[in-house]
Structure formats: C-alpha cells, structure tokens
C-alpha cells in the first residue's frame, strides 16, 4: 500500500467530516498520533459572515479520540485563526467534532459517559484513556448542554443514577427516554429538590403525557412521580429488583448456614454430654 493510499484509508477509518489525515506516528506504550487538517480552505467570520482564506495564526494541540482496537488514538489538530478582510479582526475556526478548550473529541466524551453510566468514574478512569478530572468535566458539560433541552414526545421515562466515586455516596441523577434510548439530562445530584426543579421546568404538557416511569426502589423517586406525573405508572427497574432479590437470597442463605452450624454445634454438645454422663455412671 502506498503512503497516500494508507493516509486515505486512515481518513476513512477516522470518519470525521471535513477532516483528513496527513501523517501518522506510532509510539510504543502510548498509542498512535494522527496529524489531521481541515479540508476547507475558507471559513466564515462569525461577526459579519464574510468568508476569509487569510490565515492569521496556527494553533496546534493534541486531543484524545476513540481507540482503534487496543491502540489509543491521539489527533494532532491545527485550529486555524483567520483574519476577516471586512472586520479586520481575527477569528478561530469552529471544529464540529471537538469543544473549545477540550483535550478530547465529542464522540469520545459520549462513549465515556455511557461507560460511566454502567459503572462509575473511578472504574472508567482506571482504563487509562481519560483522567478522573476529564470525566467530571464531561459530566458537567453534558449537564450544561442537556439542561436547556425539553423532552419531545416523552412516553416512558427512566430515572437512574451514576456513581461519581464508588463507595463515597456521590451520585448524579440521569434521566433517559426509554423508547428512544436517549439521554435527556444529567443532574449534578440525585436529590428530590434537584429532580423536582428539572421536572417543573419541563412543564405540565410534558409531564402529563408520560405514561410510565422506571425507577429504582428509592421512595423519593416514586413520591415525585406520583406528585408531578398524574398519568404515569411507576415500575421498578429490573436491575434494581434483581439486585434486591439477590441480596435477600444471599441473606437467607447466610441465615440458613448460620442456623445449621448452630444446630450442629448444639447437637454435638448434647451428644458429648450424654457420653460424659454415661462414663460417670459407669
């Protein structure tokens, strides 16, 4: 494969609109760095909408992206700064796949948040792709972006939570559209006050159309649903139900084992007592 065809293949695998790979380098124990550039030669000024091709400055930096198999991928990006011919002022180009002042792509952040929802921040951070601080920033960004959105045609709502730090009682509440498998919002905590404030912001037109709400076994969630969603049926989340059943089953097994050991010890002591009494009588 020729170098050009290799770069073309990497560009296709990277799959970022308007971005192409111009070079790459593999670093043992670190990963692969892809140097990328925009395919667009001109950009529109955000102030006056005048297009410009005059480069004022180049800003190179490296961000993390989704891994390729077991290989960590880093993108060396040039966020160009243009000079507007009309305004005579510089402006930086917008890159759709990465937020300003972030060292990771939007799609990596989305994947990390999905993993955090299934486990917790510490477990995901131990994989070494992103740090704990970066995950917390992703959560804050997601909360800020999603809070302004109002659910559309929401019928089945899921209320869940994310453990920020396992065993420390630090949780975020997560609201999900179960029919669309769509994350609605991540709240900074799971208190009734925080949830109620969010629900009230949705308005009665959204709350009254909700037909089913899946929750864990915390009574606080159920009370909010009963109070604010008059047409909703509360159902217990299957994961939490099975977890509760397993806990009770484990407890029952432990109790049975304890009682069996206690009965065996009592029977053994009784047997030894009878043997002792026979020896004395003899």
Task: Outline the fold blueprint.
Elements: H1 3-14, E1 19-27, E2 31-38, E3 43-44, E4 51-52, E5 55-57, E6 60-68, E7 71-78, E8 81-83, E9 90-92, H2 106-118, H3 121-125, H4 132-147, E10 156-165, E11 170-177, E12 182-187, H5 192-202, H6 204-207, E13 212-215, H7 219-228, E14 233-236, H8 238-281
Parallel strand pairs: 2-7, 10-13, 13-14
Antiparallel strand pairs: 1-2, 3-4, 5-8, 6-7, 8-9, 10-11, 11-12
Q: How would you briefly describe this protein structure?
A:
The chain is of the alpha+beta class and 282 residues long.
Q: Report the biggest beta sheet as strand number plus sense, adding barrel if it closes.
A: 5 strands, mixed
The tally of helices reads: 8
- Uncertain ranges: 240-246
Helix content: 40-55%
Shape: flat
What does this protein structure show overall?
By secondary structure, the chain is α+β, with helices and mostly antiparallel strands. Helices cover 41% and strands 28% of the residues. The chain has 8 helices and 14 strands. It has helices at residues 3-14, 106-118, 121-125, 132-147, 192-202, 204-207, 219-228, 238-281; strands at residues 19-27, 31-38, 43-44, 51-52, 55-57, 60-68, 71-78, 81-83, 90-92, 156-165, 170-177, 182-187, 212-215, 233-236. The protein has a 5-stranded mixed beta sheet with strand order 12-11-10-13-14, with helices on both faces. It has a 4-stranded mixed beta sheet with strand order 1-2-7-6. It has a 3-stranded antiparallel beta sheet with strand order 5-8-9, with no helix packed on it. A hairpin with a 4-residue loop joins strand 11 and strand 12 (182-187). The longest helix has 44 residues, at 238-281. It is flat. 19% of the residues are buried. Residues 240-246 have low confidence and may be disordered.
